[in-house]
Design brief:
The chain is an alpha+beta fold and 184 residues long. Helices cover 30% and strands 26% of the residues.
Length: 184
Amino acid sequence: MKVGEKVAVLDDAITGVIRRIEGDTVFIMSDLDFEMSFSKSELVVVDKEMAIESMDSKNINEILAEKEPKTKSKPKSKEKSKKSPPFEVDLHIQQLTNNDKRMSNYEMLNLQLDTAKRQLEFAFQKKIQRIIFIHGVGQGVLRAELEFLLKRYDNLKFQDADYQKYGNGALEVYIFQNKRPNYP
């Protein structure tokens, strides 16, 4: 694998171009313009001819625009939402801080909810249509607080996420981009 090669993720419908490689971690710019990181074992090279010799003079989007023919019609937004992977936010406290041993339950819950709200606002700004909030099972306190937070928005709906992938510990949020958000 080299910088500039087009790769695909083995277990997901994500493709992109390698931006940089740091040890076993490969950073790609997905076709939806998100930078993502994967281990080398999760990726497969799709097109070796996409190798880019000089990354210094042009940015990756300009190079891709030269390589790929331009289409005249835009894809419909409904098609895009079906193909685009959801934005996953893991709210397990161990993923958010290293100092969870010194925090009270109240502080942990507030950190988790602040993270969820910040990521939700990020999704509004970046026009991300689907978010998965991974909250875990536990006693259901975080889930109840998440539901309370999400009910305060008019332009979204939420439901349990895919059981086979997440079990009972995740909520899937759909954001309707044509409505103006009412921030709580």
